[in-house]
Amino acid sequence: MFYSNKQYGIILSKKKKEANLAKYLIEPINKLRGEITVSGAKNGVLPIMAATLLSTEPCIIHDVPSLKDVSVMVEIIRVLGAKVERKGSDMRVEVDEIKRTEAPYEYVSQMRSSFDVMGPLLTRTGVARVPLPGGCAIGERPIDLHIKGFKALGATVEIGHGFVEARAEKLVGASIYLDFPSVGATKNIMMAATMAEGVTTIENAAKEPEVVDLAIFLNKMGAKISGSGTDTIRITGVEKLTGCEHTVLPDRIEAGTFLIMGAMHDSDLLVKNVVPSHLKPVIAKLIECGVDITEEGDDLRVVSSGKLKAVDITTLPYPGFPTDLQAPFMALLSKVNGNSTIMETIFENRFAHVSELNRMGAKIKIEGHSALIQGIENLQSADVKATDLRAGAALILAALSAEGATTVHDIYHIDRGYNKLEEKLGNLGIHITRIIE
Ligand code: EPU
C-alpha cells in the first residue's frame, strides 16, 4: 500500500513519539560468560537497499538487521517505487518502475544515509531530488564530495529550498579525486557510475568493508567495479543491471561493541559471526589494554580480568581505529588504571557522551579534538541520555560496570543500530529492561 507524504508524516510522528519515551533500566554485572552473535551490518545494508533502485529485477538480501534505520530506508525506497517484502532477516526488493524521483523529507530528515538513493536515482532515471540531509548530533556532515562526484560525471546539480537536485541526460565516466576518503561519497559515486558511459575512477576512495560489500553487491548485479578496498576504485559503466542475491557482511561496529563489553568485565565471551580482519585496530587496542583475544574461525573469543591498562587512541578512516567505536571505547577507558587520550579526527562534534559519562562519575576533559580520560575505580549509576547511536552504546557499557542500576533515556538512538539488543544481552544473563512511559 502506498501512502501520501502526509499519511507517512502522521505514522512517523506517532512511532517517533512512542520511541522517544522509551528508556533502558540496566543493572550492573560482575562476570560475563557465554556467546553473542553479531547481525548483518547497518552501514552495509543501507546502501545495498539504495542500490536495489538500479535494476528492474528483484534482489534478495539476507541477514538484514531489524533496525529503525532499515525501516526508514524501506519506507524511502517504497515511496520511490520499490516493492519490499521482509521475512525474518530476509528481504526481497523489486523496483520494476521508479514512481518518484524525489525522496520524502519526512524520512530523509531522520537518517543521513538516505542520501544514498541520490546516485542510483540519477543514473537510472537521469534525475534525482533529495532533501539536504543537514547536520546531526555528531557534526555538520556536508555532502560537497558527493556533489563533486555527480558533477564530474556530467550532472547539473542545484541546491535550493532545502533540496539537492541533480539532472543528467547521460552520465559519462570521469576521474574523481576525493579530498577526504568519505564513505558516503565513495558509495554514492560508485552507484552513480555503474551505468555511466565509459570508465570512472575514484581516487582517495574510502576503503571501509561496507564499501567493499556494496561493490560486491553491485558486481553481482552485473556492474564492473574493481579496486574496492583500495585507494582507487575503477568502474566501467554497463547498459543495465540485473537482480541478485547477497548476504550482508557482519556488523564490525556491533562486534567491536561486544568485544569492548567483554573486555570491561571478568569475562570469557565468544563473539560470533565476525570478520576478524575488519576489527584489527580494535583488537590491537584491546590487547594493549591487557585483554586476551583469540580467533576461532568466524568468531572471536575475548577473555579478560576486567583490570585494564590505559591506552591512547586516534580515530581514522579504515583501516584506522573506527570513529563509531570511539564512544564505546571511552566507556572502557573511563575505568582503567591510568590516563588515556582519545583524539577524534573524523567528526568535529562527537564527544556528546563525555558529559553523560561524567554524570556517572567518569573524569573526562575535552581539549579541542581530544578527550583526556583519567581512569577511575568505579562508575556510579545515574540517569543519563543517549545523544546519538554510539553514545548510547557507550552508556550501556558504562551502566553494566557502574555501581547500582542506571537509566539510559532516549534509547531511540540505540534502536537505530543495534539489532535485538535486549534479547542478545538478556541471553548473557544481563538485566536490561525497556521501559515505555
Ligand atoms: N565529509 C565531507 N564532505 C562530504 C562527505 C563527508 O566533508 O561530502 C566529511 C564528514 O563531514 C565527516 C567525514 O567526511 O567529517 C566522514 O564522513 P563520511 O562521508 O566518511 O561518513 P558517512 O558516510 O556520512 C559513514 C557511516 C558513519 C561512520 C562514518 C565514518 C553510514 C550510514 N554511516 O558515514 O556511521 O561514522 O561513515 O566511518 O555508513 C554510525 O553508524 O553511527 C555512523 C555515524
Short description:
With 437 residues, the protein is α/β, with parallel strands linked by helices.
Could you explain how this protein is built, in words?
The protein is globular. The two termini are 31 Å apart. It has 15 helices and 25 strands. Helix 2 (42-51) runs parallel beside helix 3 and helix 11 runs parallel beside helix 13 (389-400). The protein has helices at 5-20, 42-51, 68-80, 105-108, 118-125, 144-152, 183-193, 209-220, 252-263, 280-289, 326-333, 352-359, 389-400, 412-415, 421-426; strands at residues 22-26, 31-37, 59-62, 83-87, 90-94, 127-131, 156-160, 163-167, 175-177, 199-203, 224-226, 233-236, 245-247, 266-272, 292-296, 299-304, 312-314, 339-343, 363-367, 370-374, 379-380, 383-385, 402-403, 406-409, 432-436. 33% of the residues lie in helices and 25% in strands. The chain has 437 residues and is an alpha/beta fold. The strands form seven sheets. Strands 22-24-1-25 form a four-stranded mixed sheet. The chain has a four-stranded mixed sheet with strand order 2-14-16-15, covered by helices on one side. The relative contact order is 0.14. The structure holds uridine-diphosphate-2(N-acetylglucosaminyl) butyric acid. Uridine-diphosphate-2(N-acetylglucosaminyl) butyric acid binds at residues 43, 46, 112-113, 139-146, 180, 182-185, 206, 210, 323-324, 346-347, 389-390, 417.
